[in-house]
Amino acid sequence: MDVDMNNLVGGGGAGQFPLEQWFYEMPVCTRLWTTATIATSVLVQCHVITPFQLFYSFRAVFVKSQYWRLLTTFLYFGPLSLDLLFHVFFLQRYSRLLEESSGRSPAQFSWLLLYATTLLLCLSPMLSIPFLGSALSSSLVYIWSRRNPETRLSFLGLLVFTAPYLPWVLMAFSLVLHGTVPKDEICGVIVGHIWYFFSDVYPSLHGGQRPLDPPQFWRNLFERASPDTGATPINNEIAAAAAPEVR
Q: What pTM did the predictor assign?
């Protein structure tokens, strides 16, 4: 199915949802990440904090004990702008899809986030990537795209392709837009592919073994509380939008 931004927001008809309902329909991990991302950009825009306080630096974290950078590097996508809107759209859309497909307990998806953030933090000093939000978002987009190979997407109303090509289309768009190789997105795709391989390909080749599944203690941590996030499953037919179409 081809989808565009007009379908996504309901085209002004009865399919539109109030902003508050849209917010509370998101699963808990996606809701927290989206909220923190927007709040961080607002605080930077209001000069309460600066980007220099947010980026990841091995020396700043482990020598100067500025441990908050382990988190804030994934929350800052830039100042309030159209570019930030695109990032938030992709972040909440594909994060939400993956989290909802992981079941009612957030154990599986939170373990995915822990795996991806840890690996990206390890790669960051070698590749000189101070902000890792785009890399983490690219990991989630890649995993979703590989798990939905038959979904057809429309990019800016000009290019129609199937979901597995989405990460590469976004890289090409970023290259054209910024004129530099998007090494953060490439890094995210590598991290996402490792997860996809060991979660979706490896088990069928090795008797169902799933080496990247969360350990039992992690499942117990979440399932003991049995939270009801109130999230409503999203309509997958409209969730596959590749990018907002700007007219």
A: 0.81
